[in-house]
Write a structure and sequence with these properties.
Blueprint: E1 3-5, E2 13-15, H1 16-21, E3 36-37, E4 43-44, E5 46-56, E6 63-72, E7 80-82, H2 84-90, E8 94-95, E9 100-101
Parallel strand pairs: 1-7, 2-6
Antiparallel strand pairs: 2-7, 3-4, 5-6, 8-9
């Protein structure tokens, strides 16, 4: 799974193609009434929101939570964009210099 960590994103995004590949049976998307604006300022149509389990880390350093993702039906080289909501809950510190998160 390819995840882009974006400290400027105010939502967590999962792309429809990735969601389809997860083979979730009978999932229900919650409707969303807000718009999402892309980097170039264009409006992106949202399919809805879904709550999914999310695990970060390995072994004893692993942390688990349920995260809300906004579903977008658009092409992307990533499966997920992890935004500020996840970064805050996991207490992530991002290093641009090292291209790592802790």
């Amino acid at each position: 799974m390819r995840v882009f960590v974006d400290s400027g994103s105010f939502v967590n995004v999962i792309f429809q193609e990735a969601l389809d590949q997860m083979n979730l049976k009978d999932y229900q998307l919650e409707p969303v009434e807000t718009a999402l604006f892309g980097f170039a300022g264009h409006t992106v149509h949202l399919e809805g929101e879904i709550v999914l389990p999310l695990t970060i880390g390995y072994g004893d350093l692993r942390k688990f939570l349920m995260a809300t993702f906004t579903v977008v039906n658009a092409p992307s080289s990533y499966n997920v964009i992890s935004g500020r909501p996840t970064m805050n809950v996991f207490k992530v510190v991002a290093s641009i210099y090292h291209q790592k998160i802790k």
